[in-house]
Structures are given as structure tokens and as C-alpha cells.
From TrEMBL:
PANTHER family: AB HYDROLASE-1 DOMAIN-CONTAINING PROTEIN, HYDROLASE, ALPHA/BETA FOLD FAMILY PROTEIN
Pfam families referenced in this protein's UniProt entry, alphabetically: Abhydrolase_1
An annotated Gene Ontology molecular function: triacylglycerol lipase activity
Name of the molecule in the record: Pimeloyl-ACP methyl ester carboxylesterase
Classification via SUPFAM superfamilies: alpha/beta-Hydrolases (SSF53474)
Domain of life: Bacteria
InterPro entries documented for this protein: AB_hydrolase (IPR050471), AB_hydrolase_1 (IPR000073), AB_hydrolase_fold (IPR029058)
Signal peptide range in chain numbering: none
Taxonomic source organism: Streptomyces violarus
Annotated ranges, domain AB hydrolase-1: 23-139
Amino acid sequence: MGQMIDTGGVELWVERRGRGPDVLLISGLGDPVEAWQPQLDGLADRYRLTAFDNRGAGRTPLPEGPLTMPRMADDAAALLRTLQIPAAHVTGFSGGSFIAQELALRHPGLVRSLVLMSTTARPDSYFRAMTRFWEWMVERAPSERAMLEAFYLWIYTPRAHADGLVDRLIDETLAFEHPQSAEAFQRQLAAFSRHDTSDRLDGITAPTLVLSGELDLATPPRLGREVAESIPDAEFEVLPGEAHQPFQEVPEVFNARVEAFWRKVEAGD
């Protein structure tokens, strides 16, 4: 079970699971901790996993004022310090990978290693056009289901649409007791759209693995490759046949890959 934790600047909803080396999971746009369920279930016998709702997602309230990547990275840092975690393997997905980049730059001592899934250093013109569409789509779609059906076209593989996974995820999202408001979605989206670490990534010192889905429309592999090439000694890998959220679609593949990376980092400590 999760709990609300006061980090000194903001209260965050947090779920912790397992025992072993510490892992911090940082969610993307609109995702609550439940998005990481395959990792919370699949890795908890070997790692102590911490996942949390970002500002304006799930049970964490949306504060006054603009959302920014540095502020959200500071939230993650404050959470680690509040939980007395000296350093963690940090895994960030999509917008959460933007937060993870800032965390590694602003609080390097807290980051034992870095996994960036579906990432970019700076939104390109396609990304900006896509997010402008999402911004008005969340208000003007004829229903929440219709909005999710459209939104998930960018997120999941054609396979997931064909085999019923997307329908199941939509049903779960609609049944979730803490839905994200349109305002919170738009304000998170605006923060992620302003992300830019393109001239600072060479300052990341943590061992880094960058993962991209071959079929990812939102953050295609060329953007992930640019991130990996900018971070000293970073590893880069494309997951064949996968899209934006392989940690949900093929959790066994994702979990095995990140665990292999963490074990290599620990062996080198």
C-alpha cells in the first residue's frame, strides 16, 4: 500500500515495494504509480523499488504556479532524502526521463545509475506539434474514452491495439479513482514540452542506459540515440518491435534488460 509523504516542499503519493538495492521509478505524462505495476511486481524480490505520483498525477495534488523539470527533479531528490536513500538506480520513462535527466544533473550524488526510456534531450518540431494537438484534444474529445483511444495511438504498438491490451488499459484508466484533470494534464504537458538538456547532458556522470522502442512515434530512436551520444559512456539500445511503453507491453523483456544493467553497475562499484 502507498502513502502520502511530506518531503518538506510538497506532499507526494509514494509506493514502496521489496528489498535490495534501491530503485527510483519516475513516471511520464499523467501516469500514477500504478503504471509501474509490472516492475513493482516483477522486481521486488530483488530490489527495493520506490515509485511516486508526480505533481498533478494520481494522488499527488497539483500546486499553484508553473510546473518545471528542475522543480520536479527537486521533488524526486527531496523524496530520496526524506526516505534516507543515499543513492538509487533511477529509471525514468518519457516525461519522467526528462525529470531523471535533471535529477542526475542537479543532484548527481543521489543517482547511482540512470535508465532513460523513450527519451529526448529537447522536443523537436514533430514532438511540439504532437503535444499541441494533445493539449486541445484533452478538452475537445467527445468523451474521455475517445480521448484515450486517440492518445494511445502514439503510445502503444499496433499489436497492443489488436490483442486487447489497449482496451484493457483504457478500462483501467477510466475506473481509476484518482483521474488526472485536463488542467493537470495540460500543465504537465507544457512542462515536458519546455524540456531542454541538450547542452548539459555531457555533465551527467552516472552510468547510463538509454532505451528506445523501434516503433515509438512520440520519441523515436533517433532522439534516444542523440541523448546517449551526449552522455559520456552511455549505452544505447533499440527494442525491436516496441513502441513508447515497453515496460508495460513486454515487462519481462524490459525488466531483464534494466536488471542486467543494474547488476553490471553494482559489479563495477
